[in-house]
Amino acid sequence: MISVTKKFFFVVSLMLSVQFLNAQTLNSIYKAGEAGYNCFRIPAIVKSTKNTMLAFAEARVKNCGDAGDIDIVLKRSMDGGKTWSDIILVWNDAENTCGNPAPVVDESTGNIVLVTTWNLGTDHERDIIAQTSKDSRRVYVLNSADDGVTWSAAKEITSTTKKADWTWYATGPCNGIQMREGPHKGRLVIPCDHIEAASKKYYSHSIHSDDGGVSWTLGGTTPMDSVNECTVAELPGGKLMLNMRNYGKLKKFRQVAISDDGGESWKDQHWDMQLPEPICQGSLIWYNYPGKKPMLAFSNPANQKSRSNMTVKLSTNKGKSWKKKVELYAGPSAYSNLVVLPNGNLACFYEAGVAKPYEGIVFEEIDFSRL
């Protein structure tokens, strides 16, 4: 019979072994403490027209909180994610908050367009919502014409993308898309969310550009509230699907809405009971693997109790069902962004750690045979 003491040490040893294994298998391309930053959060990733992988993040200077001195940074990979560059500083505005990176690639020009948000570092989300903050939440765009190596100055687009009676505002956070077909072919679409000043209600919405990201227009808002951070994908025929973090009566499942007009309006909002969540951000993309039926791919921490169990699911019927899935990491994990690699495989860029989700941002390639 094993003594209580021996049992205790056995359990502790087993837990340490599991933590060590998890630490070894996480391919964190951003790690807390790197380059003098306390924490990296809010992953966003795209593939350029030159097949360069561009992995964005918020680089939080003093702590891991959502307010304060936050920069937007980038790492580039020229070999499909096998190796990565040093950190490239995309936007730093003194001790203010530059965040919510939402990049999109203009396939016609090769330009990388980055839509993002800004607020004073001393203003917290609760103050902005209560309208007691010193400034507001503002919307900006930057672009790169050299494959992400250098970036333009940030240009404010708040006046055309945010209503006067909105307080909190967020872009993405995740990639935007360029529409492939239909009357709005070539349009850049960014998923966003906001809070109304009077009602304090949360909504998702979109913004779009028809001139390669030079000018931006406010799109439609979801018909129902209690949703915010969202992700967008284009379905065959030019329809758009918005997949949203949900605070509604069925809190622990994602919500979905559809647009027939390039994001100018949203309708058919409903819960997807096959996509559980702990109330967290997720990522949705259209995935066209060579030789296979085109499909939707979705990633999130598929756990209703905690931010853990990062999972990718596939649907071959436009989101009606999600019959294939792969669990990438059972441990603590949170925000994510899916991307298609030059070799045709999927990759997931996601927050994860051993003790908590915010220890680093992981890049993981997913071989199609696993799905």
Tell me about this structure.
This protein has 371 residues and is mainly β. It has one domain: Neuraminidase. It has helices at residues 4-25, 125-130, 158-161, and strands spanning 28-31, 39-47, 53-60, 70-77, 88-91, 97-105, 112-119, 138-144, 155-156, 166-171, 177-178, 188-196, 202-209, 217-221, 227-234, 240-246, 253-259, 267-276, 283-287, 295-301, 308-315, 324-340, 346-352, 360-366. A 7-stranded antiparallel sheet has the order 1-24-23-22-21-20-19, with no helix packed on it. Strands 10, 11, 12, 13 and 14 form a 5-stranded antiparallel sheet that branches. A hairpin with a 5-residue loop joins strand 12 (188-196) and strand 13 (202-209). The radius of gyration is 20 Å and the shape is globular.
Strand order of the largest sheet: 1-24-23-22-21-20-19
The arrangement of helices and strands along the chain is HEEEEEEEHEEHEEEEEEEEEEEEEEE
Which regions are unreliable across 5 or more consecutive residues at pLDDT < 50? 4-24
Q: In whole angstroms, how far apart are the ends? A: 44 Å
Question: Sheet bearing the most strands, described?
Answer: 7 strands, antiparallel
What structural class is derived from the secondary structure elements?
Answer: mainly beta
- Helix percentage range: under 10%
β-strand amount: over 45%
Tally of extended strands? 24
CATH architecture: 6 Propeller
How many structural domains can be distinguished in the coordinates? 1
- Taken from the alpha-carbon principal axes, the silhouette is globular
Fold-level CATH name: Neuraminidase
Number of helices: 3
Mean pLDDT: 93
CATH class: Mainly Beta
